[in-house]
Design goal:
- Helices cover 33% and strands 27% of the residues.
- It is an alpha+beta fold.
- The longest helix is centred in the middle third of the chain and has 21 residues.
- The chain is globular and about 80 Å long.
- The protein starts with 20 loop residues before the first helix and ends with a helix.
- Bound molecules: adenosine-5'-triphosphate and magnesium ion (3 copies).
- The site of one magnesium ion has 3 residues, from strand 13.
- The site of one magnesium ion (MG) has 3 residues, from strand 13.
Length: 439
């Protein structure tokens, strides 16, 4: 993409209403704009990041055996009356009436819709287990929308719903999602810690929030220092079809202490001494096994292996896709701007023509651009006739992993400059070598 033909409203000023660094940088880097309180438009560069995150989420859901579909954003109040949640949900629900005065709502979550769809389509135990997911916009009329996309009112969520014949099956479905979540966040360069969360009246230990550390986080978290070790998706490469290995793996991942404020264990913390860490964190995902709650209320039953009707047990599994854009920036930025992990970067390379008014320089930059594009590399090409300093500042704030700088002085020596955004390291090399290294 040529910057001269793009839409990238980068700003120098930090808007006054932006409190946290990720919100400031998202506005400065031209990723989003707020159109109403807690409602954001995704500008072209931000939209590319959102899509990359969504794709990683999708790949890991698919890998875990979940099946993608798409449910609507607008739901009928009828379904929520059936589950008993319509009145209970409260002011966070955006309630709408259509022209015939039928009660509708903008979905804050989808348990009711999926349960009714599954009820319609699943007849016997052979239709179990299943895990269905979608990636769809949600609306919650948050009391205090803030921190940009991290607590919006309209936000993009991946939500999956599992249906199982019995508790043991339900646990397997839960464990598969548990591992998928660890892999998903690791692939985005995030260290997300699973922390036991409240399960409400159902009880049990089958609910975890996945929390990423950030000073602006709304949760206070306490954890064992072992969580500070960097981990990659390969560290979570367990065979999810082997349920004993899967359970052992989940047990090992929950062995080291990690708890939110509400779930602290003073006794365990006392034993840990120096190994105890305290920080703030952002909830990026939440998994939950709730058994019969919705299936029973909504009359979902299938015929069991012996012919008797059974009520499937359900779980639900959310990931805050749009919140993750903010959370990743919270975890990866410096004084000059965003530092995107390569897996979610909107483009891999920012190609800078230092002298758009110089024919030789422009020819060389154009040539690099054409060859990188031909090699399938994602390049944002700053071909504008602007000062070099302004171009560097733009590239730094938008945080692409690599900057490839073409200037007349280098070209005289037959080299271009390659800068690594994360380390700041710069090397001079022949254009040929740069293409080889980057593609
Ligand atoms: P929070 O505690 O932050 O209000 P929640 O517990 O209400 O979140 P869930 O119902 O567990 O949220 O939804 C699943 C995921 O959706 C959350 O883990 C979070 O990543 C994301 N999410 C929830 N509310 C918002 C919001 N207002 N803006 C952006 N993402 C959100
Ligand atoms: Mg909430
Ligand atoms: Mg929460
Ligand atoms: Mg939650």
């Amino acid at each position: 993409m040529r910057l001269s033909r793009y839409f990238l409203p980068v700003t120098k000023e930090t808007p006054a209403d932006a409190e946290v660094i990720s919100h400031k940088l998202m506005l400065r880097a031209g990723l989003v704009r707020q159109t109403s309180a807690g409602i954001y438009a995704w500008l072209p560069l931000g939209f590319r990041v959102l899509r990359k995150i969504e794709q990683i989420v999708r790949e890991e859901q698919d890998r875990a055996g979940a099946i993608e579909m798409l449910m609507p954003t607008i739901q009928s109040a009828e379904l929520w009356r059936e589950s008993g949640r319509y009145d209970a949900y409260g002011p966070e629900m955006l309630r709408i009436a259509d022209r015939s005065d039928r009660d509708l709502l903008y979905g804050p979550t989808n348990e009711e819709v999926i349960t009714s769809l599954f009820k319609d389509g699943a007849k016997s135990y052979r239709d179990l287990p299943r895990n269905l997911y979608h990636i769809q916009w949600k609306f919650r009329d948050e009391r205090r929308p803030r921190f940009g996309v991290m607590r919006g009112r309209e936000f993009l969520m991946k939500d999956a719903y599992s249906f199982d014949l019995d508790e043991a099956g339900g646990r397997i479905s839960y464990n598969k999602m548990f591992v998928a979540y660890l892999r998903t966040f690791a692939r985005m360069g995030l260290r997300a810690m699973p922390m036991q969360a409240d399960t409400g009246p159902i009880g049990g230990d089958l609910s975890h929030e996945f929390i990423v550390l950030a000073p602006s986080g709304e949760s206070e978290v306490f954890f064992h220092e072992s969580w500070e070790q960097p981990r990659t998706a390969e560290d979570y490469a367990v065979d999810v079809e082997d349920s004993a290995a899967l359970q052992a793996f989940v047990d090992s991942m929950t062995a080291d202490y990690a708890a939110t404020d509400e779930k602290r264990d003073e006794a365990r913390e006392a034993e840990m001494g120096d190994a105890l860490r305290e920080s703030r964190g952002v909830e990026v995902g939440h998994i939950f096994f709730f058994g019969e709650k919705y299936s029973k209320a909504m009359g979902l039953k299938v015929s069991g292996p012996d012919g008797d009707m059974v009520t499937p047990l359900m779980g639900s599994y959310g990931i805050g896709v749009s919140r993750l854009v903010g959370a990743i920036i919270e975890a990866s930025h410096d004084d000059d701007g965003i530092v995107w992990p390569e897996s979610v970067a909107p483009y891999k390379i920012g190609l800078i023509n230092m002298r758009a008014d110089d024919e030789t320089c422009t020819a060389a930059a154009d040539d690099l651009y054409a060859r990188l594009e031909a090699a399938g590399v994602e390049v944002l090409y700053d071909d504008r006739d602007e000062r070099g300093g302004a171009k560097f500042a733009t590239m730094d704030v938008i945080g692409l992993p690599w900057q490839l700088i073409v200037g007349p002085r280098g070209l005289e020596k037959g080299v271009v400059e390659l800068k690594n955004r994360a380390t700041g390291e710069r090397v001079e090399l022949a254009p040929e070598l740069a293409i080889g290294k980057l593609s």
